Amino acid sequence: MTSAGPHNVRIREAAASLLLGLFSACIATAAAAGQPADVQTLMRLLGRVERVEVAYQERVESGLIDTAIDTRGNLLYQAPDRIRRISDDGDGFALEGDRMQLIRGNQIADALIVSEIKPLAALVGALRATFAGDLAALQTDYRLDFGANEQAWTLDLAPRAIALSPLFQRIRIVGNGATIETIEMLEANGDRRTMQMRLLAREPAGLE
């Protein structure tokens, strides 16, 4: 039987990966349409996505280790609620509906019912609002701070919902025109995750 400690760690890791992965898929789609002038324009772009696949490179920096951990892999999102993220080592997760599978070595290591885990449920609900382009619903759970100038645009998200506070302090997304420079998440425990990605495919093609 899995002990509570490792189980909770896996849930936190899955939540962090899910959060960063979902925003990666969202922003990869939005970026291709050009630099948005405001958050309303950004949300309209996000609501148009049907399917997106990206190759990612993620770096995790923690005060508990001296060396950063780098991983690479692929992430696939299929509207309305399916996402699969697998590293080159075969680790990741698959989410569909209310069920989330944790994957280790290309094998299912654990299965979670999202609605039974309050932080995950709040996270998934908020991110699905993002995909739907529902700005009002997203602002219920996050404080949004969007800014743009000639050089770049930045979107900061801070958790407003109590259920999200144990997961992360802030997400910062920085883009320059049609290029995403960084997606950075500062976790509640001080760990920092930074993801870069390369768009492989997306639908509809009209988002080009």
Give a written overview of the molecule.
With 208 residues, the chain is α+β, with helices and mostly antiparallel strands. The protein has one domain (4-207): Lipoprotein localisation LolA/LolB/LppX (outer membrane lipoprotein receptor (LolB), chain A). It contains four helices and eleven strands; from the N terminus they run H-H-E-E-E-E-E-E-H-H-E-E-E-E-E. The chain has an eleven-stranded antiparallel sheet. Helix 3 (118-131) runs antiparallel to helix 4. Mean pLDDT is 77; it is low at 1-5.
Strand order of the largest sheet: 6-5-4-3-2-1-11-10-9-8-7
- Strand element count: 11
Gyration radius, in Å: 16 Å
The count of helical stretches stands at: 4
Helix fraction by DSSP (H/I, runs of at least 4): 25-40%
Task: Please describe the structure with a list of short key phrases separated by commas or semicolons.
globular, 208 residues, 4 helices, outer membrane lipoprotein receptor (LolB), chain A, 43% strand, 11-stranded antiparallel beta sheet, alpha+beta, single chain, disordered N terminus
